Amino acid sequence: MDEKEGRNMAYNAVIVIPAYNPPASFAEYIPELTKAGFHNIIVVNDGSRTDKLPVFLKVGRTEATVLTHEENRGIGAALKTAMNYYQEHFRGETDGIITLNSDRLTPVEDVIKVAESLHNEQEMGSYAIVVGSRDLDSHLVTDWDYRMNLVMKLSYHMLMGVRLADPLSGIFGIPDLRVQHCIDVPSEGYSYETAMLMSFEKIGFLQVPIGYSVYEKGYEKVRRPKDTFGIILTIIGKFILYSITSLIASVVDIIMFSIFTGITFRGSVFAILYGTICARLISASVNYLLTKHFVFHFKSDKAQKSAKSAGEFMALSAAQCLVSALVVSLLNALLGGSAVGLKVLTDMVLFFVSYKIQHKYIFKDDRKAGEPDEEVVKAEQEKAKKLEEEQKETEEEMKHHQPQNEG
């Protein structure tokens, strides 16, 4: 294999570009990608206006495949349309997908960086998503990009413990065996890319520095306030669910306390103590089950692992109560004032700390270090099956031609 051929192997990725009313310069961008060695390009016309058809007709004359939505369905739906096409025509044959923008044309050299990183991920068996991280210190950066990325970076770090330099670039390298994973992400609008990134939390990220690309001349702004709100809501959604499950547990705690003190232990000197303990055990159990299944989607095939997480959750709840009592007592002694107010502030801080502990330690990934995940195992099995079928076809073909050769 010569050097040029070896280099092209690293670019064995399918380019995917969702486009909604793209600028005229977009059509000139496709030949640049082709010239660089990207011969598989999927462009999705996401319900653009009829006056933009010449742009897509020009794109269609290149090596690119143009898929069309009759009406605008959003960037998530456009990406999924391309991904489904990829699964049908390229699955198992390339390194994966590289997503680009139609209104900000990423320099070819940066696309190559992402392609090489994507190829290396495949070679190492890591299969993390490659994230193109733009230079946000550039004087070209827009105010919206700078401020929104700052909010997103803080949110990712505070709520997920993940440090992403540029979660909003839209430049991603998705490994071949993760494409179906991305299709299954339940979102289709502008917030899809955020939801997709969050779904890789336990899989991993590989950040690749790229340049900052400005909007092309003639681009049309399609971002709406509800899109921005949707992005923020997507990333804090898990924390909102966590808050809701805690609220439900509190209601259960009050109801059970009322039942135990008013009926079960009525008349007992220790009715309040017994009622508090029993009610808290039940409400904590409800909170554990809701948090496990609906917030962190924690799954484990091992009963021992589930029992361990339950025990840790109960211990954390007990520790949280104890710390709250001690801190409120200490602050009240030092500062005075309302104990109720101090408790509210203290419990708010402990509430967030408890979320971080549950997220990072109690409901962490059940897989051992170095153990492949289900998607990797499934992909390897499918690959082995495909090779076996190809080998059988070859053997059958050889048997079919053997009598003719002998004759």
Describe, in short, the structure shown:
By secondary structure, this protein is α/β, with parallel strands linked by helices. Helices cover 59% and strands 9% of the residues. The chain has 2 domains: 11-223, Alpha-Beta Complex (Spore Coat Polysaccharide Biosynthesis Protein SpsA, Chain A); 236-362, no CATH class.
Number of separate domains: 2
CATH top level of the largest domain? Alpha Beta
CATH architecture of the largest domain: Alpha-Beta Complex
Number of E-state strands? 7
Task: Tell me roughly what share of residues is in helical segments.
Answer: 55-70%
Strand-residue fraction? 5-15%
Order of strands in the sheet with most strands: 3-2-1-4-6-5-7
Shape: globular
CATH-assigned homologous superfamily of the largest domain: Spore Coat Polysaccharide Biosynthesis Protein SpsA, Chain A
Biggest sheet layout: 7 strands, mixed
Mean pLDDT: 84
Explain how this protein is built.
The chain is α/β, with parallel strands linked by helices. Helices cover 59% and strands 9% of the residues. It has 13 helices and seven strands. The protein has a seven-stranded mixed β-sheet with strand order 3-2-1-4-6-5-7, with helices on both faces. Helix 2 (26-35) packs parallel to helix 3 (53-60), helix 10 (271-295) packs across helix 11 and helix 11 (303-335) runs antiparallel to helix 12.
Question: Which key features would you list for this structure?
Answer:
7 strands; 59% helix; globular; single chain; Spore Coat Polysaccharide Biosynthesis Protein SpsA, Chain A; seven-stranded mixed sheet; 407 residues; disordered N terminus; 2 domains; 13 helices; alpha/beta
